[in-house]
Amino acid sequence: MSFAMVFPGQGSQSIGMFDAYGDAPEVVDTVRAGSDILGQDVGRLVREGPAEELSKTANTQPLMVIAGIIAYRVWQANGGPAPQFVAGHSLGEYSALVIAGALTFEECLPLVRLRAQAMQEAVPQGVGAMAAILGLDDDKIREACAEAAQGEVVDVVNFNAPSQVVIAGHAQAVQRACELCRAKGAKRTVMLPVSAPFHSSLMGPAADRLTGYLAQVKFKAPAIRVIHNFDVAEHTDPQAIRSVLAKQANHPVLWVDTIRRMAALGVTQLAECGPGKVLAPMAKRIDERVSGIALVDRAAILQGITTLKGAS
User: Is-catalytic flag, 199?
Assistant: First the structure.
């Protein structure tokens, strides 16, 4: 049996998410270190909000990395085994690289804050949009996007699970694509409450800014195997890691292929490390060989360790 850990991205944040892991030294120390690195009281922000401030992209992205690292350190402190593989959904890939030893926590937080700012500023507020398309074949969604573009941009950007796909681009083009998807048989289309068309080709300026910043960031070969979103591949060369992180910003998140790749490599147990229950439930929908557990709080971590030891 192989065990993998996956890290959620933006959207799983919530008020009080750090408190769910208790007040053990690994929690307190990680929050304090994160505050020192970012120059703000992140513990107070997560504990008190307001939710609007927590949901600002420039805050959400580093806070989600901190939450994922907290969950992993609580897991470790209670005897949880190290995973053989790690991956992260979009932003979560940065947490995965920290866990794998390829990137330090100290360098990661300023990097993801820059990433957040670059993605937010790439497209003016209100120009872009994202929508979830449920219950429609991937190829039909691609057809709808091609028909809906009409000189604008609308791309398929997240392949999250079978029949669960996200599109993004210019707001009007996204609306047209939703209408076409419904006409082609989609069960539902849902506009998402986001501030930018993440992972679409409109994020080219963000990818360029990331490329410049990443050139200054030190990476090492990961000690745990990392499956990357951009190409569903593993990379050990620091320059290759920099390249796929930059490209991830304006290319689709290939999550279905990532989980299928892990299953093909022998992964049967997967733990979602951090707040939210998004990735764990999707695992079996993607590949029936993989069971997922969500480490949303200290109790779930203790239960997860017991479950994993029982399965080994």
Answer: yes
E strands within the chain? 2-7, 85-88, 128-134, 154-161, 164-170, 188-191, 225-226, 267-273, 291-295
Output the CA torsion sign for 210, 67, 191, 189.
positive
What are the residues facing 129 on neighbouring strands?
169
- Whole-number Å distance between alpha carbons of 235 and 222: 8
pTM of the model: 0.96
What gap in Å lies between CA 257 and CA 30, rounded to an integer?
32
Are 83 and 304 within 8 A, CB to CB? no
Q: Check pLDDT > 90 for residue 11.
A: no
Burial letters 193-204, b for 16+ CB under 10 A, else e = ebbbbbbbebbe
**What burial letters (b/e) apply to 232-244, b meaning 16+ CB within 10 Å?**
beebeebeebbbb
Buried b (16+ CB within 10 A) or exposed e, 109-136: bebbbbbbebbbebbeeeebbbbbbeeb
Q: Cα separation of 26 and 78, whole Å? A: 11
- Compute CA distances 104 → 97, 235, 271, whole Å: 8, 17, 22
Q: Which of 12, 55, 90, 200 is catalytic?
A: 90
Active site residue 90: yes
Q: Does residue 140 contact residue 204 with C-beta atoms inside 8 Å? A: no
Q: Which residue in 199, 228, 235, 251 is the catalytic one? A: 199
Write the burial class of residue 78 (CB in 10 Å: 0-12 exposed, 13-18 middle, 19+ buried). Answer: middle
Backbone angles phi, psi at 288, to 5 degrees: -65, -10
Q: What is the pLDDT of residues 132-153, one digit of tens each?
A: 999 999 999 999 999 999 999 9
Closest residue by Cα to residue 229 from 130, 90, 115 = 90
pLDDT tens readout for residues 201-236: 999 999 999 999 999 999 999 999 999 999 999 999
Q: Give 3-state DSSP helix, strand, coil % of the chain, rounded to 5.
A: 50, 15, 35
